[in-house]
Amino acid sequence: MLAKFAVKNYRGFAEKLEWDLSHPSNYEFNPFAVKDGIIKNGIIYGPNGSGKTNFGLAVFDIVNHLTQKEKERDYNLNFAYAGNQGSPVEFYYEFRFRNNRVNYIYKKNYNAELLSEQLVINDEIIFVRDGDELVINKYDIEPYRYNEYVNNANKVSIVSALLSTYPIKEDDPLLILKQFADKMLWFKNLEEDRYVGLQNGSADVEEYIINNGLIADFEDFLSEVSKQHFTFERHNAGHERLLWCLIDNVRIPFDIVRSTGTRALEFLFYWITKIDTTSLIFIDEFDAFYHYELAFNLCRKLFRSNCQLFLTSHNTFLMTNDLLRPDCNFILNKNTIKPLCDCTEKELRWGHNIEKLYRGGAFD
To answer: What's the pTM?
Structure first.
């Protein structure tokens, strides 16, 4: 699981921004939101322009150079803070895998090219690369390999280089780090569907539902979370790319009759069917098209999954102890991100209406 993250000089974050998930408070309610001493679920709030989207993309920068999964479009556009493009962009990750603490730190230039990186496992430095200098402590690397690692023209990560050229054991934290990154997923649904990680290529949602025999499941999902009752045609399953629904026995394409919010639900359903294969999910603008009660119901469903999962939202109806806890609701603003319980000297308890406190300025 991701335990800590920090970034500096990335897009709108001129100064270092740190996110610590490793110190949950001792709330006894909603224990599912914390796993192995690390915050597993959370919602990130913040005013427009505070950087919620950029923050999520910063967390997922590791996907762009450790995996071959789907990348962010225009990834290196506006990569470094506009006022300081001559300085490196710095990333810091701390993961907890079983009994291992894995720290991965690296820097990139304004064009998103790797400049340096360092891997530390349980306080033991595994390797350090800084420009043309490379020291590898754990693995017995032949001298010619050093030259290959340092001089690769496409700036391949030393993590990737070791995994592709050195025999690694199945329980090696290096391999587990790569597997975790392979299973990370960021997505949003606004004017268009966008995602980073987990797989490659466009997400053809309706074709996927049809070809995987999920039509009935999708009907049940819409009924469960939004009380919408659709009947979809089944006899053409596997032969068409579009879902057809029946309205008073009239056959009509679903994409014609669905609302904007229902389209967003369809995209969410697609990813929910893959949720058991993910390590970390970040859903940006989660409920932009959802009724507040629908958003609440979806959060209940999502937070019961086994993966680490975070959302961004402006919907303060979700800021309630009925759903999460004060240490799992985060405020991102002015280059800081803090849980509610760290934004006030007031002791927050189960009975407090934290949405009302937030609207009243208690966490400013």
So the answer is: 0.94
